Amino acid sequence: MANKKANRISVTQLKKMSLTDLPPVVLVLGQEQALLDQAKAYFEQLLSPEEQEMNYGRYDLSEDSIGTALDDAASIPFFGDWRVVMLTQPTFLTGEARKNKVDHEFDALIDYLAQPQPSTKLIFWANYEKLDERKKVTKAVEKQALIVDASKLQGYQLTKALQQLCQEQKIQIETAALELLQHRVDDQYTLAAKQLQQLALYVGPGQKITMADVDQVVEQVVDDDVFSLVANTLNGQQRAALTTYRQLLINGNEPIQLLSLITSQVRLLLQTKILRQNGFSQGDIAGQLKVHPYRVKLALQQERQFGLQQLKDMSLELVNLDYQIKSGRANKEQALQLLIIKFSSRNHSQTRK
Amino acid sequence: MKASLETLEQHFATVIAANELSHAYLFVGATNSGKMTLAQWIAQRLFCTNVKDGQPCGECAECRRIEEGNNPDYLVIQRATRTIGVDEIRGLKQELSKSGLEGRQRVFVIQDADKMTPAAANSLLKFLEEPASQVVIILTTTRLARILPTIQSRLQIVTLQSPTLATREQAIQQLGVDSTFSHVLSTTQFSLEDIQGWLEQVDAVQLQQTFWRWLTQILARKDSAFTLVQTQILSTFKEQKLQQLLPDLLLAALSDLFTVKFALNRPLNWTNQQENLQQFANQFSTQQVTALLEIVLGLRSMQEANVSFQNVLEYTTLRLLVVLA
After folding, report:
1. B231 & B247 share domain
2. Domains contained in chain B, number
3. What range defines the domain where residue B188 resides?
4. Nearest to A213 by CA among A165, A171, A181
5. Which family does it belong to (chain A) (predicted)?
6. Which residue among A260, A288, A316 places its CB closest to the CB of B315?
7. Interface of B with A (CB under 8 A)
8. Order of strands, edge to edge, in the sheet holding B74-77?
9. ipTM
């Protein structure tokens, strides 16, 4: 299995596999909850309830060491043909700094992967976005395992997956309605799948879901990410910025806190602009400001949309507003909204969402 | 009228001897002018078991307990925080309603009473109006104007003479600060203990260098002054007290610029910056110099409104640059 793509399958393909087809090591990778749920349901139905009692092992690797799990995996099944060992929280496969105290015996794992027990299905449950592929143990797992892709679906893949879901559940939906649905749920498969079931109930059996139905039933998902508020405000996407702002207020965010986030982004833009004009390179800027290089890289791209004077004015305006609010001379919700409107209407050249 | 510590002690000795001590005082005076010494003297005079010629002995158990802060009837409220809140005053009021633990008079001191929030000050009013007997309450402050008028009118105000700047400057120099910087520091509101505290954390020379590098870049109309705030000033001026010092340094420097520009016949604060400032003073118009000074004067009120130190400095930098542009 030298070719990387050869050992990578989708959850739909996985569901069609029988226990015998399944290779001894499987890695489920991704964060799409609906797909993960499907995969989980699949693994759980592999063994009959009686067999599960004896032959289904589950190890949380943030608490149990891999050695214990491997001992279980290496033993022969009792009263049955197969043993399924599920390993959750394999954080050691990712680049994340290790928080757990468990010491894993990676050599033992690598040895096991070289010669897995044929009667055992060892499943790594990696509900992460991606793994750290530079690690030796990650390489070993990826080489041996069948990788089940449960990552976020996008674009064409998403549409296809939803269509498939409709077929399976015998839901009929207009193409345009499906598009609207995807837009409303902000391209989240899990949410779309849930909404589809609601829609099916709403129109009743045998009926086709129309655009009007979607429009009535599905509410627009509002981005409630503070960073998109900052980005939208500075990129001139006024409408998106204002909806996000409203959502953030409903969620209980403090306007002063939001203001300070905008301030710090404008500050970074101004700093990078000044330093770039003084001839500093990207790395030097990051070093001087003690800011993460990637943030500097992004700031250097964004900074060019603004004039030096414009950024200075914005910075003055932001701090002044902070002072006004803190000395009780401005209503914080309204004043910040006004500022967002002002800032986001500066750049008309940008396309609107 | 300002009076020296000795005169005041003499005055209070007579008052106490005549049993005419009022229930509440406000001691006003610059830092290190001896407000706390006087308060402590009064407490000792009241509790001392061995008063001689109207003076506490300073040796008996009572006197020593007061000196060491171990007497439950002599209570000092002293806060390192920026404000004294209403909860703290409520706690004090509860104490005030009790009689002396050892059956005598009680003395309460609120140090830096100007730090009281309006709510805290107002909650104290009622007590000042209807004092419990056997209690003396002393408020101290460096800034009389910051005490509510309604409080002021209920207290006897005692103004203390400030130590002469020369004495203060000498004392600061003895902490190992060079002469120019001690001169600048002597005019600020910070106590010797404060200054000693910083010196343990930062190098005075580096502090001045960083400050002047920043200011010189502003005066030279360089935008890089803006980035210096994050790259150098923040890491040097970490302590909150140091952050309160920076406006003073800036004000001293710009008032020097003013002095140089208008050739005023008064000594500079930053005596070692004469040439540097002269060169800039020649480039700027008189309006510009006054405008710079005006911006810096507004800096402290921003800081007091809790605008972050970085924001205040960056804002000031940009505004100063606008004036000079």
Report:
1. yes
2. 2
3. 165-324
4. A181
5. Belongs to the DNA polymerase HolA subunit family.
6. A316
7. 223-224, 226-227, 230-231, 301-302, 305-308, 310-312, 314-315, 318-319, 321-322
8. B74-77, B106-110, B135-141, B24-28, B156-159
9. 0.70
